[in-house]
Amino acid sequence: QVQLVESGGGLVQAGGSLRLSCTASGSFFKINVMGWYRQAPGKQREFVASIPSGGSAVYADSAKGRFTVSRDNAKNTVYLQMNSLKPEDTAIYYCVVSGTRDYWGQGTQVTVSS
Questions:
Q1: CA-CA distance, 40 to 16, in Å (whole number)?
Q2: What is the 8-class DSSP label of residue 64?
Q3: Which spans in the chain are helix H?
Q4: Host H or E run for residue 104
Q5: How many CB atoms lie within 10 A of CB 66?
Q6: Looking at residues 47-54, what average pLDDT do you find?
Q7: pLDDT tens string 17-45
Q8: Residue of 26, 21, 17 lying closest to 8 (CA atoms)
Q9: Strands 18-26 and 2-7
Q10: Distance between CA atoms of 59 and 68, rounded to whole angstroms?
């Protein structure tokens, strides 16, 4: 019913920036919260940021002050602007959309080199 397509990942040096995007497509009725999780090699998936429809964003402590999550409801798209990237930010980033159920993107790789 709903599929999420992510893009924007890549290789960047420490201190650099990337902007991830995630667009929901297909048939859906209502989308509430849109957000991002990430999973580094050998680690569990962890919350990064989320933003409800018309609400304020919520960030993990590791993301506060560096990352900004935003959304364009007309485009059914959520973004994650990542600044001042650190090597520990290296992970696969997954978009999540919450509506009648949760939908997950395929993930996009972010690699930050020293």
A1: 19
A2: T
A3: none
A4: strand 102-104
A5: 15
A6: 94
A7: 999 999 999 877 678 899 999 999 999 99
A8: 21
A9: antiparallel
A10: 8
